[in-house]
Amino acid sequence: MRAKKIDHIGIAVSSIEKALPFYVDILQLELLGIEEVESEKVKVAFLKIGESKIELLEPTAPDSAVAKFIEKRGEGIHHVALGVDDIQARIDELKTKGIRMLNDTPKTGAGGALVAFMHPKSAQGVLYELCEKTSVKGEHE
Ligand code: CMX
Fold first, then answer.
1. What is the pTM of this model?
2. Inter-residue contact 41 to 60 (CB < 8 Å)
């Protein structure tokens, strides 16, 4: 299992609208797009930072994973996404190495990417996402 790069870092925020001026006006990052990911009950904004991205995550429902995170820990770093090829093989490989996966098969995330999460208890308290790009229209490169 070799991750190619940090695809993005997910930051939980209460309001994308309120958070954006810090990223766009102060850090002067390029806003790549905003979309709703219904399956995850979040609205996300991607900002380009070199080869990587920052993903702002705003919950759209009180029972979303991100709403629960903000309620418990406040706003802040939520996950680190590792870019991989052949995500299903990576999931299977991690499972054989004893890593607890939250997804046994990939699901479709923001920008049409295939994603799967590891449980933070298997990774020293960090929520890691595996992320495989697909050539779906609207993808945030
Ligand atoms: N990073 C690190 N640790 C986290 C965490 C996070 N983002 N979220 C929860 N945890 C920790 C908790 O602190 C808790 O630890 P303790 O038992 O030591 O207190 C433990 O994980 C269990 O957490 P919990 O609060 O009881 O919450 P849940 O078990 O209900 O859910 C998790 C935690 C990670 C399993 C769940 O959030 C999940 O399935 N996440 C994957 C999907 C996701 O995060 N989607 C949103 C992003 C979507 C996108 O990027 O588009």
1. 0.95
2. yes
